[in-house]
Specification:
The structure holds 3 protein chains of 3 kinds. By secondary structure, chain B is α/β, with parallel strands linked by helices. Chain B is built from 9 helices and 10 strands. Chain B is globular, with a radius of gyration of 17 Å. In chain C, strands 1-4 form a two-stranded antiparallel sheet. The chains are: A mainly alpha, B alpha/beta, C mainly alpha. At the A-C interface, α3, α4, α9 and α11 of A face α5, α11 and α13 of C.
């Protein structure tokens, strides 16, 4: 039964990973930018929530009302002011710029908040659980995270498929020169895509903070999880990202069941196995390459 | 309606256009012809805003648009059907068409009228644009530009790589477009097609205007001279 | 009459200068205290790392954020060879570099499944995996690391001097080796690949093979640097030798100095070393400045400081040709 439980917890954890990986996937899909500061930005969001709670004694969920839009605005500005310029300087520049941003963020957070581990209060929801059988129970909070992940992914999918701006975004991803001949400002599309990516990573960052502790240096480890979820699921597929997140989550919880030291390693090994056996990802159509 | 004066365009060190003048009146159809590399596509790209000219002015309806980027010219009514169609492969036919009206002007061209113009697209509306034949793709590209209700439609090498019968079908749509009040500027390799479709013809030779005349008055001989510079 | 030549005047002067600098540096242990030489070893490590990362990214187009994998393996290899294998610790350095290159062979097949930005994170994951596995090995001290106990029999001054010379040798070999490589046929192929991968492949360059070679050499270089780090600090610890911070340093030095040149990363390493010596006490602020400077240089002067300087002097290590 402990194994069933491990798999179940892994699936729920995978929802959070998928939510977190969505932004990475979106930014790569639209702009071909791999944001190396992705993890640190989610930690920044968690610290913003932490500061708000500290100052105004809010509930963690309420902070989302401020943190998510604030991060979206930050994303818009980062794209317009830094990455747009970087894209013009060649393929190396966005990597170096986002890596530089990662270093700056980590150390700025360290300076502002000290290296101590923090957690965001999850309230009664954090401990409440649903008893499935005598030995099997799931936390409501984990269920909520998976639900939110599915909702965000479905919403994003609908946005891309059904709205004019969503279509413009897909078209820009195909051919950013030609969209300009149709009156679409490609810089604006990029900036909005980045804003959406930042909003989702902010949501994931706050939820992560409610689930486990965080500190300023945890960002890179998070980035790696998001990256693994994207690659396992297959590039360019939002539902693939969900599948990838779930596979990664299950690998980690099952690995932890063997020995706590193996949790992260098991995730990495599954990732490497996918890279060797099915580099296009488990859900991507054959022939596409990462 | 559109006037281009003393336009110079360079790619880095290489100059492609030298002091080109061009003007098209409201409702008129002008064809720009010339050999490969004469600068025809470059001229269209400069008018659409995809290229910044080194010198010269582009004026649309009395408004200087020389400094405007492409995405701000489209809402003013300049639409380019680019060489090679440039459809968005991950979108369906209908999604490609809809994108035309997204930042376009209000006007007579709506989705149903485009389907009327190119009835064979109706059956393909849900197909991925990556899976079209050349002629189908060209029809979508023209329809996409029309949905922006342009005042000036720029057509770049519509016939390129297509079978003659397909080209005839596409050109058969042109009178309807012109009838709806659109001014058309065609770039075409096929001189016969260009002369048949346009009111006036202008020939480019190595980046300079070598001939300009009404289609009806131009002789084959004059065209050959301007085309090859002999 | 037009002749094709590699070097301008700066090139000939520069090569002579480089030999003089190397000889002066080699005599340093007889002149200055071991504190100074101990610190200079850090500079040699930085020179190796910057040069190798530049080879990877500036010439091979391979932006890796996972070179710390090879740095850590090089450091641990010295422990394994010397403490457990009975090999002289200083002789272990070249062996460690070779072992690292050997490890890079299978890892390259994994990493090369990914491209561009995903290659970057992929190499990082590999580094994490190598770290996690290393931290499981009992004889190597698991998570808490190990000490290089075999050099305690040396007189401290002698030990530092030997470390210094080995470090200098590795640095000279790295810079010289990369220079030689780039002047060779492979260098020409790499330049072609960097400028246009498709066109290079079309003219018969075996792109992946050339890139793999670069990856292996860069791995060996990072391994050598790691071995020096181990000799200089006498301890290894997974969290520090496998830290992604090393990648941050490499990127900073290569980008700020100037990618795609031999001199740029050297300049970057010197600048970084100077910053480290003066600002490292500031801790986090120092790193914030580092990151910000890297971003600004990348956006405003993508050719780096050397790009700004060399417009006037010409190249000291010319790998291109010029007409005269």
């Amino acid at each position: 039964m402990t194994w069933v439980n491990a798999v179940l917890q892994g699936i729920l954890l995978g929802g959070l990973y998928a939510l977190f990986a969505t932004g990475l996937s979106l930014m790569f899909g639209v702009m071909r930018i791999v944001n190396l500061a992705h993890g640190d930005l989610s930690v920044l969001a968690a610290f913003l929530a932490f500061a708000l709670i500290d100052a105004f004694a809010l509930s963690s969920f309420v902070t989302l009302i401020v943190v998510v839009p604030a991060m979206a605005v930050l994303g818009y500005l980062v794209q317009r002011l830094l990455l747009e310029r970087g894209l013009r300087a060649g393929p190396l520049a966005p990597l170096v710029v986002t890596f530089g941003l990662s270093v700056v963020l980590q150390n700025a957070l360290l300076e502002a908040f000290s290296p101590d581990s923090r957690a965001l209060p999850a309230g009664a929801l954090g401990t409440a659980s649903l008893q499935l059988t005598e030995s099997l129970s799931v936390g409501w909070f984990a269920v909520l995270c998976l639900g939110l992940a599915v909702a965000v992914l479905a919403g994003l999918q609908l946005f891309l498929a059904r709205t004019a701006f969503g279509r413009a975004m897909r078209a820009t991803s195909d051919d950013r020169e030609t969209v300009q001949l149709l009156g679409i400002d490609q810089r604006q599309v990029y900036a909005v895509a980045t804003a959406i990516a930042f909003a989702t990573l902010a949501l994931a960052g706050v939820l992560f903070g409610m689930r486990t502790t965080f500190d300023p240096s945890i960002g890179p480890a998070r980035l790696i999880f998001a990256f693994e979820a994207v690659i396992i699921g297959g590039l360019g597929s939002l539902w693939g990202t969900l599948a990838g997140g779930v596979v990664l989550g299950v690998a980690q919880t099952v690995g932890a069941q063997i020995s706590p030291a193996y949790a992260v390693l098991a995730g990495h090994l599954v990732f490497l196995a996918v890279l060797v056996l099915r580099p296009q990802g488990i859900l991507a159509p054959a022939g596409s390459r990462p | 309606m559109i006037s281009v004066t003393s336009l110079d365009v360079r790619y880095g060190d290489a100059q492609v256009l030298f002091g080109v003048d061009l003007s098209v009146a409201e409702g008129e159809t002008l064809a720009v012809i010339g050999a490969n590399g004469a600068g025809k596509s470059t001229l269209l790209k400069a008018i659409a805003g995809a290229l910044r000219p080194a010198r010269g002015r582009i004026v649309l309806d009395g408004r200087d648009v020389t400094g405007l980027p492409a995405h701000r010219r489209y809402p003013l009514g300049i639409a380019l059907v680019p060489e090679g169609r440039r459809l968005f492969p991950s979108l369906t036919v209908e999604e490609n068409l809809r994108l035309g009206s997204y930042r376009g002007r209000p006007g007579p061209w709506r989705l149903d009228r485009v389907y009327e113009l190119f009835p064979h697209l109706v059956a393909l509306r849900r197909r991925s644009a990556a899976l079209l034949s050349g002629g189908e793709a060209q029809a979508v590209a023209i329809g996409r530009a029309l949905l922006g209700n342009p005042r000036l439609l720029l057509l770049d090498e519509v016939s390129l790589g297509l079978a003659p019968i397909v080209v005839r079908q596409l050109y058969a749509a042109l009178p309807t477009v012109i009838g709806a009040g659109t001014t058309v500027l065609i770039v075409e390799q096929d001189v016969g097609l260009a002369l048949a479709a346009a009111d006036r013809v202008q020939c480019l030779l190595e980046g300079r205007v070598a001939l300009e005349a009404p289609s009806a008055e131009v002789t084959r001989e004059a065209v050959t001279r301007a085309y090859f510079g002999v | 009459m037009t002749a094709v030549a590699r070097s301008g005047r700066a090139g000939r002067l520069g090569l002579a200068g480089a030999v003089v600098v190397a000889l002066v540096l080699a005599s340093a242990p007889y002149v200055v205290t071991s504190d100074v030489t101990h610190t200079l070893v850090d500079l040699f490590v930085l020179v190796v790392l910057a040069t190798m990362w530049n080879l990877l990214a500036g010439y091979g187009g391979l932006v890796s954020v996972g070179q710390q994998a090879y740095l850590g393996v090089g450091a641990y290899a010295v422990i394994a060879l010397s403490v457990h294998g009975g090999v002289n610790a200083f002789l272990a350095v070249p062996i460690a570099a070779v072992l690292t290159a050997v490890l890079a062979v299978p890892l390259s097949f994994l990493a090369f499944r990914l491209h561009g930005g995903y290659f970057a994170i992929g190499t990082w994951v590999l580094a994490e995996v190598v770290k996690l596995i290393t931290a499981q090995i009992g004889p190597l001290g698991k998570g808490s690391g190990a000490s290089l106990t075999t050099v305690s029999s040396y007189d401290p001054d002698i030990r530092v001097a030997y470390t210094y010379w080995v470090g200098l040798a590795v640095a000279v070999a790295s810079v010289g080796g990369v220079y030689w490589l780039l002047c060779s046929r492979i260098g020409l192929q790499l330049t072609a690949v960097r400028d246009d991968e498709g066109a290079a492949a079309a003219t018969g360059v075996r792109v992946t093979r050339a890139k793999r070679l670069v990856y292996l050499i860069a791995g060996a270089g990072a391994g050598g640097a790691g071995a020096i780090v181990c000799l200089n600090t006498l301890t290894v610890q997974p969290e520090s030798v496998f830290s992604v911070q090393w990648s941050a340093y490499m990127i900073f030095m290569a980008v700020v100095g100037g990618l795609g040149t031999i001199e740029g990363p050297l300049l970057g390493a010197l600048l970084f070393f100077a910053l480290q010596q003066t600002l490292a006490a500031q801790g986090t602020v120092y790193l914030i400045i580092l990151g910000a400077v890297g971003i600004v240089v990348m956006l405003l002067a993508p050719r780096g400081l050397w790009g700004v300087v060399s417009g006037r002097t010409g190249e000291v290590f010319p790998v291109g040709y010029r007409l005269r």
